[in-house]
Amino acid sequence: MIDEIGHFALVLALCIAAVQIVVPLYGAWRGDSALIALARPAAVAQFVFIATAFLSLMHAYAVSDFSLLNVAANSSVAKPLLYKITGVWSNHEGSMLLWVFMLALFGAGVALFGGNLPPELRARVLSVQAMIGAGFLIYILFASNPFLRLDPVPADGNGLNPILEDRGLAFHPPCLYAGYVGFSISFCFAIAALIEGRVDPAWARWVRPWTLAAWCALTIGIAMGSWWSYYTLGWGGWWYWDPVENASFMPWIIGTALLHSAIVVEKRDTLKAWTILLAILTFSLSLIGTFLVRSGVLTSVHAFASDPLRGVFILALLGIATGGALLLFAIRAPTLQGGGLFAPISREGGLLLNNLLLSTAAATVLIGTLYPLFLDVVAHQKVSVGPPFFNMTFIPIMVPLLIAMAVGPLLSWKRGDLFAALQRLKLAFAIAAGAAVMVLMLMGASSLGAACGLALAAWILAAVIVEWAERIHLFAEPLGQSLRRALRLPRATWGMTLAHAGMAVVVAGITGSSAWSVEKIANVRPGEAVELAGYRIALDEISQVRGPDYVATRADLRLLKGDKVIAAMHPEKRFFPLEKGGQTDVAIRTNLLADVYAVIGDPDGKGGYTLRLYYNPLVPWIWLGAAVMAFGGLVSLSDRRHRVGAPRRAQRDAAVPAPAE
Amino acid sequence: MRRWLYLLPVAVFALMAAGFYIGLSRDPEVLPSPLIDEPAPQFDLPPLPGSNKGLSTADLKGGVSLVNVFASWCVPCREEHKALSAFAALKRVPVYGIDYKDKPKAAADWLTELGNPYTQIGADDGQVGIAWGVYGVPETFLVDGAGRIRYKHVGPLSQADIDKTILPLIARFGQ
Hints:
The structure holds 2 protein chains of 2 kinds.
Chain A: H1 2-30, H2 33-37, H3 39-62, H4 69-74, H5 81-86, H6 92-113, H7 119-143, H8 167-196, H9 201-232, H10 243-268, H11 272-295, H12 308-332, H13 347-379, H14 387-407, H15 418-424, H16 426-443, H17 448-471, H18 479-488, H19 491-516, E1 518-524, E2 529-532, E3 535-546, E4 551-561, E5 564-569, E6 572-576, E7 581-585, E8 587-590, E9 594-603, E10 609-617, H20 619-637
Chain B: H1 2-24, E1 44-45, E2 55-56, E3 65-70, H2 75-89, E4 95-100, H3 104-114, E5 120-124, H4 127-131, E6 139-143, E7 149-154, H5 159-173
Parallel strand pairs in B: 3-4, 4-5
Antiparallel strand pairs in B: 1-2, 3-6, 6-7
């Protein structure tokens, strides 16, 4: 019964989406305020119905209702409740439903919290959003329906891919999807602006919170995904340049560019067409990501079921959304007039450089990801593009970006003084050089790459602190005065400071892990011990244990430094009888500076077991830094100018389009 | 001129979408062999116990033949055995076997149990398989009269594969 309600709610949501597409758009065109006003209740109603469908599916999973094909195929009675619930989105149909759920959530957000938007703009935004929603609802109902019935009802389900039975996975797709889908709002704002033929600082200010929210969610989602692959795949790595990872990373890069270029639109009323293009591209890359993951055109370590018909369908959606948007862009963008002029060396120039480098970086990742596909299409050859390609192309683009990142915030708008800015960064430069020298002295000349990486991290962090200290007149005024200034700094400024500092931490983490990771594979019998980077790891016992839906071989390890026991570690090798699949459960001991990472492998038949051990310095900083970045985004999101007053659009001249300054 | 610049994104996207569309009809799991249309690698393999004729490159000359890479430890080989035997019984072309990374005794027992469809078999410890670009058993190659590899099939052969692909290719290269 509840399943039928869910299914029916989904159909109703599609009907409402159809109304939400047509009526507000027509109303905005005719200037009919009654029709315009329909957008908000329609968006809220759409959310209510999709949420109903989503919760019904969740209910079916929670009570193990195997009369639904989707539940029978992806769950089982013995699953712990948490994994029954997260099973909802660890399969294709359910994850598409999560996708539209997020979409409707953001739509309802614009309807409820977009009170300061001009009604026409809001109507157009919500109408475009309903177009995307309708496309995906049709896709779900006709090609990936999670509410299809199964007869006869099986006694138990097929279970979940064991690799997906994990707490990290439970919350990583929702974050990732919130990011992907959140960028749909920026996209809708861009389309609405192109329809209106008007982009101005107020527009940029309205888009910014949505872009920021999506960016924060995506940052957290990517970090969680990376963390998940770190502790579940059992290879000690945290990023594989896998197509599915790239699919989430590309929108993040372009989304970051968008966040920065929107600042220029807001402050200086220029770079308009470019910002619109970035808004379109960010969401388009999210769609392309969905296409790549869902259609199976690329092979990937991520095991998703793929189906060519579904691929064609998503490709059609992608074609309509992105193709249509870019066509509209080609027609309307040339009429968008730029405002303020600026010199190459200026805050605008810095932000533009950031944009160019980020776009190039995203293009590199896109080319690397799609190259195998296109080579197959054009030349019938199969290749795979691996981490060496990405490391060789992506890093050289990121390094100048990261160097410039320290300088940009110190330049003034319109015309900056590079020399003066560098003067102010003398201290930062000294700290960076000091960090490099220290690394070389401690670790030897072979750590030259690592020295450069850590110097870069120190450079960014020091520059961020210098900029912040100057803003609050630290040491130039009494400390109390400075603190008062710090408290009065706009939240957006705090956000930038935190996000940039977070980036410095990430750079340090990446450097440490790629330069100093130690791997050791050994065959060990109980009672023996292995040396690893100054630690000793003793294998005390191997035992067989039983979990709720698996059996496991479990190692009791002791981590020792000298004679002192630091921690007990228990890696497991699990076997899930129902799914006939295995899964390693990694044991990680971290002190926030480095991880000791242990995986138990196969027995050698003579009483010994393969142990894979890793010592990964600074790896925790990668996720710590990402968390700081996302926190910075959230702080910026809470800035009061997103809530009050400022976003008021200048009176529009009836005849003349917005003139240049 | 500037206007054309604004058309660039949509043009690039159109190309990309066309590539995606064609890409959808491709199976990323299928790996073509770089050996297609190339002469078969040089090899000379010893026989399995109970036979006195091994398999060498010279045997492949003089007419179209099918070279099947198998092993007694390989479960899908057991699966394709029936279709392969039925094909061998047609006596259209010789079916040669390369017993890949196997214990010769185990392979001989396996063939005694299931029946032997092969005209000749060579026992390979893995070297020849590498030369043929084998990365999983079973794999099947169609070699023409001049000793060139014309087609490679990865995975077990089904009756449908034989009817729809192998037999038409034999007709084509048999002239």
